[in-house]
Design a protein that fits this description.
By secondary structure, this protein is mainly beta. It has two helices and 22 strands. The N and C termini lie far apart (106 Å).
Length: 270
């Protein structure tokens, strides 16, 4: 009888140990969940107003991994949840590339992760202000740039916003070396004048730099003389509206001495 009771006791004890082992095994086997690294903040326009629905792209410059933060059209808040040790580590650099919904303002800024952020679970309230892109005067490419010939263009430019000008780019006809050899933009009332001369077929010869920075003021009228070479693209119209103002043709004298009143060179002032 005692021997039988002893056997029962041993079996019961063994069963209890098995049940205990089964109950604790999953807890021991499960690894701790990875710690998050959260980045959040608010996006603002250059004037300080809220930029709702901004596009926030983030790149780990060390690993090359890319993400897009969560945003909504009705708020300027953004948030990105990454995984510590997998997506990011201390001393790595995150690059933030932000744009307004209409693309007119942007900002690219870098942030290097520190250990304190890893310990705290992220980098919070990282607010970023966007910057307006510099305005340029761009005629764009004409639908039909032909006929084209070198010559001297005279006319006026009237910007609808202030534009800072340091150089002039000429759109060339495809397969040609179309360029500007000389450019002068001036306003006698303001007493301002900028001149640019071509340096020949070397380097970026489609761009020429002015001898001084010129500020084209909104609503003011500026005269221009542009002497082109080879085959630049041409807008065949006496007046051309652009996104940032008007460009008008007073006259164009081609290389053969023929005069036109509806030739405007395809250029960018930037």
């Amino acid at each position: 009888m005692d021997r039988r009771m002893g056997s029962i006791t041993v079996i019961a004890l063994a069963s209890a140990l098995v049940l205990f082992a089964v109950s604790v095994a999953p807890a021991i086997a499960q690894p701790a969940p990875p710690a998050p690294y959260v980045v959040n903040g608010y996006v603002f326009y250059e004037n300080g107003s809220a930029c709702n629905g901004a596009v926030v792209n983030v790149t780990n410059l060390g690993s090359g991994a890319k993400w897009q933060a969560d945003t909504i059209p009705t708020s300027n808040y953004y948030q990105l949840v990454l995984v510590n040790g997998t997506d990011v580590n201390a001393s790595e650099t995150l690059q933030f590339d932000l744009k307004s919904p209409d693309g007119t303002q942007s900002n690219v800024t870098n942030h290097t992760i520190i250990q304190q952020e890893i310990d705290n679970g992220g980098y919070f309230n990282f607010n970023i202000s966007l910057e307006a892109k510099p305005a340029i005067f761009d005629t764009g490419r004409p639908e039909n740039p032909y006929p084209s010939i070198s010559g001297t263009h005279n006319g006026t430019i009237k910007p609808n916003k202030t534009i800072i000008v340091n150089k002039l780019y000429t759109y060339p006809c495809v397969g040609t070396g179309g360029h500007t050899e000389f450019a002068k933009i001036w306003n006698e009332t303001e007493g301002v004048c900028a001149i640019a001369n071509w340096g020949g077929y070397r380097g970026d010869y489609h761009n020429i730099s002015f001898n001084t920075t010129l500020t084209l003021k909104e609503g003011m009228v500026y005269n221009y003389t542009i002497r082109t070479g080879s085959y630049p693209q041409v807008h065949h119209t006496p007046a051309l509206p652009t996104a940032n103002g008007w460009m008008n043709c007073s006259s164009f004298v081609d290389a053969n001495g023929k005069i036109y009143y509806d030739w405007i060179p395809a250029i960018k002032l930037l």
